[in-house]
Amino acid sequence: MSTTVRPSTAVDMPTAAATQAQVVANRISRRRSRLWIVAPVLLVLGVGGWRLMPQFGPAGVGKSVTVHRVERRSFAIVEEVKGELKAAKTTEVKSKVEGRATIIWVIDEGTTVEEGDLLVRLASDKIEDRIRQEEAKEASAIAGLEGAEKGLDILVDQNASDIRKADLAVELGQIEREKYVEGDAKNKLMGLELDLEAAQQRFEQQELDCEAVKSLHQKRFKTRSELLAAEFNLHEAQRQVEKSKLALATFNTYEYPKELRQKISDWEEAKKEFERVKKSALAKEAQKRADVEAKRANLLNTQTQLKKLRQQLADSEIRAPGPGLVVYYSHRWDPQKITEGSEVHERQTLVTLPDTSLMVVSVRIHEAKTYKIALGQAVNVEIDAIPGRMFTGKITKIAPLADSRNQWLNPDLKEYETEITLDQNDPALKPGVTARAEIVITHLEDVICVPLQAVYSKGGQHYVFRSNGGDGEPVRVTLGESSNELVEIKSGLEENAEVLLAVSDIAKAALPDVEPSEGRRHEGKKARRDEGTKGRRHEGTEARRDEGKKARRDEES
């Protein structure tokens, strides 16, 4: 990357030789040499200066070869950098098929596609086999779920019937208990009491009859057999009374409590059976419902897997998510691009689709020159693939951190990736082609300037040699902005003065080598602080040469 100049107005050199020297300087700039060469060496290399060396003797310097008239000029200071054209928006197309798959067809690289166009087709026979297997599982799972749901309905109905029966048994047990206490037991008790009363009345009657028979027997009106019969009837009546009393006592003491307890027990058991039936029904229903849910989950899993496989089958045909230019994906560690028959894995990037409707130039700016650039700066761009046409653009992105991708080659190399967005669009613009950008740093209007080869530096000061018919008179000057061809003279020279582009070694040796005074050093510091907002100032051809050499070594690396 080098700095060059685009003059806005032409300046005629006083002589053909000076023009030739300017052509040499321009040629060096176009080759982006980055070398800041002092004027005598430039003249020797550009003009064949070994033949001119006699002119540098005491007899004076040939004006027709080395004299330049100082004029005011307007020129742009630009930073030239080489980069690569790419799309501002690039879509990566990845494989979504699980595992590994084989490419059986791929679209040609460089094809312009629209959204939905087929890009890559992957082998899908294994996926189709799995789909058929899952479809069979789905049918079986559907039948199993339907059977389980019907079984659940039957069980729920049966449980309801069993619960109703158990509840009825409880109700009947309660009725049976109340019936016995309030009906059967009382009725039997009344019968036993009535039997006892009847037996007692018969006993009393037999007792009267027996006394009458005894009285008549004594009077011999009744026979002994009749007396014996009357006594037996009395005895029988007495035994019947005892029997009725015993029956009543047995009922009150044993039979009634026994029957009552039995009725209560039957009722209690009916209630317990009701609870057991309900719990059993709930347990069976819960188990059946769990079976239904398990079968439903199995069906859902099968359908999910089937849906996933069908999506995988659809993903085996990879289509363009949007318009763009097909570019096979590759990177520096694996430059192999996709082909028919190659295997790819899930999430592997296969194709990129740069959207060529908006193109940018990606360049790398050396850290020593980042202070010159800023967002929004105008840029002129030349595309190698489109010769003779100039594009314009602006800097839209400057990386906040240096790019370290090439540090393993040169640990000291630090470059900042910068993007330039083009203002124009052209179908001929393709990603990956080489682009040459000229970043317009600033534009100097109507300033006094001289060619770089007219400036000499020594002792931290800058000089030009004013033409005086001999070796020239050294004049200290203050420099401003500079390019590879011209440098602004802020003070020390006036317009129309004549300076030498080449001087003898004797004249150069006559330059003062005394360091500037403390006051001048302070003035220099103040000037540098004032000029810091505009960028680094020209510090002499020697410093420029060192910087150019370092940048060239970095770029070559």
State the end-to-end distance.
Answer: 13 Å
By secondary-structure content and strand pairing, the structural class works out as alpha+beta
Quote the beta fraction: 25-35%
Number of separate helices: 8
**Average pLDDT level:** 80
Gross geometry: rod-shaped
Radius of gyration: 60 Å
Uncertain runs are: 1-65, 516-545
Strand order in the largest sheet:
3-11-14-13-12-15
Helix content: 40-55%
SSE arrangement, N to C:
EHHHEEEEEHHEEEEEEEEEEEEEEHHH
E-strand count: 20
Notes on the protein architecture:
With 557 residues, the protein is α+β, with helices and mostly antiparallel strands. It has 8 helices and 20 strands. It has helices at residues 16-30, 39-47, 63-66, 125-218, 224-315, 505-509, 518-531, 541-556; strands at 2-7, 67-69, 71-94, 100-106, 112-113, 118-122, 317-319, 324-325, 327-328, 343-345, 349-366, 378-383, 386-398, 415-422, 434-451, 456-458, 461-466, 473-482, 486-491, 498-500. The strands form 4 sheets. Strands 3-11-14-13-12-15 form a 6-stranded antiparallel β-barrel. The chain has a 4-stranded antiparallel sheet with strand order 7-6-4-10. Strand 12 and strand 13 (386-398) form a beta hairpin. Helix 4 (125-218) runs antiparallel to helix 5. The longest helix has 94 residues, at 125-218.
